[in-house]
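Table S2 (text version). Query chain:
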Amino acid sequence: MTAVSDQGLDIGELSRPGGAGVRCQGVVHLYRTFEGHDVVALQGVDLTIQPGERVAFLGPSGSGKSTLLTLLGGIQKPSAGRIFLGDEEISRMGERYLARIRSRRVSTMLQGSTRNLLPYATARQNIAFARLAMTGRERRDAVVDIDLLRRVGLDQQIDQVVSTMSGGQRQRLALACAVSTGPQLLLADEPTSQLSHEDRDHVIELIHDLGNDLGTTIVVVTHQPEVAATFPRTVTMKGGRVGQEGRDGAEYVVIGAEGVVHLPSHLSAQWPQGTLVRIEPEDHQRLVVSKPPDTNPLDQVEGETQ
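Corresponding structure-token output:
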């Protein structure tokens, strides 16, 4: 049995080490308000996440980032389009098979630690509850609860009731429960919201450490640029579409359906909606975008497409 070690601590083997890739093809999602109005949350999302990759989703409220997270986790089904987890299309699975996916291959941390935990139970009991769907053999091969709690700094709270824990402790316990089944894909919606800076940094460090140790594919939704900056790839949602990506510190816009392009936020004020522009190819990797001569020449910008 292969062990995962951290600072000399053997934390055992999770039953399915490694990550799973995710692929979205033309994903559309609508929902109905209490007033009976249909709202388009996602408008043709195309996205590929490689196995073991770590990605942070950014975007304003209502941009569709949390909705996309629930679709990737099999909590909801898209109104149209296809979603693949590895080679399996989860967007067309029945609820019985989706339940199996959610309990074994994908873990989703909802926003707010209390939504992921049993408040009247202890840390040990919460981990046991998270593993209920595992087989006896999977439980025997999984990380021992005390070792997993030690990994997130909660070994002294193993028999402490959740309702008596601090916010940072509850969020670390929620993370421990999420990885206790050895998921191939970890989804976390605002895992650092309402935490102090110290607790925030600790939780993000743990997420990255677990990704390094286990190779799990990790997708995090956040509104905090400081959190997103720790991820090698960022995806910015705008109006239900993928509007922008960041890779290793460089920013790229994403060409959407019918050639739609979302300007980076720092240029939107200078180039507001309705601005007349001219686009000319300079070579096969560069486009020159400019305003007509009667506008301020200082407003010209040159952009690259890779």
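Notes on Table S2: Residues 197-214 form the longest helix (18 residues). The chain has nine helices and 16 strands.
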